[in-house]
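Example 501.
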Amino acid sequence: MATTISPAQLDARVAEFLDKPRKMLIDGKWVDAISGKTFPTYNPATGEVLAQVAEGDAADIDAAVKAARRAFDSGPWSRLTASDRGKLVWKLADLLERHIEEFATLETLDNGKPLTVARAADVPLAVDMFRYMAGWATKLEGTTIPISVPYTPGANYHAYTLREPVGVVGQIIPWNFPLLMAAWKLAPALACGCTVVLKPAEQTPLTALLLGELIQEAGFPDGVVNIVPGYGETAGAALAAHDLVDKIAFTGSTEVGKLIVHAATGNLKKVSLELGGKSPNVVFQDSDVEAAIGGAASAIFFNHGQCCCAGSRLYVERPVFDRVVEGVAAKAKKIKVGSGMEPGTHMGPLVSEEQLQRVCNYLEIGMKEGATAMAGGKKLGEKGYFVEPTVLVNTKEDMRVVQEEIFGPVVAAIPFDDPEELVPRANNSMYGLAAGIWTKDISKAHRLASALRAGTVWINCYNIFDAALPFGGYKQSGWGREMGKDVLNLYTQTKAVCTRL
Ligand code: ADP
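Predicted structure in complex with adenosine-5'-diphosphate:
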């Protein structure tokens, strides 16, 4: 079912998509913002405006939530069989797979990542997520429960549980994997029978909107998926606070995650959060050191370090510290940084001017704190939002560059001597999203995996994602788990039914 689109056809389709201001999807129709406003989305490789997009705010969110409410409470969606619901989700995966080139191209233009990465990772992972979740639609089972009820002696009961969709779901997603984050959110919500209002990040709204076209083509009933682009402080905040929303699912910064929790208190909607990280990646001297060097480099430089789970604190056992750090620095220097559309590019620009400023600011802070760059350390070029892949040494745990999430291609390398003392140091973070371990000693690896306070631990690998593998954070990295069967708990609720026989 792979696409057979020619390069000329692809260019024409992408040009057509970018040409007109993009509308929002509410109740099965493509509409302008009620205010009539649009906002620009930029090509981060050039800093130029890529497209104009309808700017949703509280009024549009209200219309979208009401459409989702109607679709959930009284639309045909709730009467579909589980099998038919699953088939729609699977059909969406098929359509997405057929349009892989358009999605990959648009993702690269809007986000900056290399086209090869969007094509090999972002879009196929999104396809796989829809397929994996499609299968769950028919497997959301309750249980029968033998109950005893001591205060009604002699009575018999038939008790069972139902797993029901949680209702209308607001989903707010970030810009680092725009399509994939939409898939992580939409696929389980739809498989579980929820209806959705999705707000993409203002920096990267385009692939979610293109996905909206496929959602319509697949035949989802009107109002089941509504997509409202707009800014966080307006559209996002209105969605998080809306009284008719039953649940809000958010991926983004820890700071905004806390605002979401506050906004959700009005109607005590359910909240799930996938937030920031400052993940330790630990290399022991008994590891396959060459593999660890490659793994440590990709742990931080994949997606330009714009991953919540990036391996940004590199702990290396002292006897191999110099070798590992020199190896990672050598890899950093070899990374070809450029426009994601250019063949051969390994690393594209950061997503926005703001993000570039943030990363450069942290580089300055790091140098002032006494860190030194073994590779990189500064902005690259005059046009676009490029920064050098950077390896910092002479870092200490209390430095801001070691404690705070930079969300860019900057790793802080720190030696350790005693594996025992490593655990508290690796856990010395407000975050707990992910961790990496490199060793050939499997007992040590599993002991450490158990001691690390992180939602994901990768052993002799890093950044391995699968639709079946739950992902989420300990501590201030979040609430709840996405993907795998764990995520079904976020989009269903249990009803206990008890009958006296
Ligand atoms: P980043 O700092 O990496 O841009 P954010 O956490 O600010 O990440 O953004 C992630 C998502 O949260 C985006 O869709 C953004 O629009 C949204 N957002 C930002 N601020 C708010 C807010 N106050 N309420 C709801 N959503 C918000």
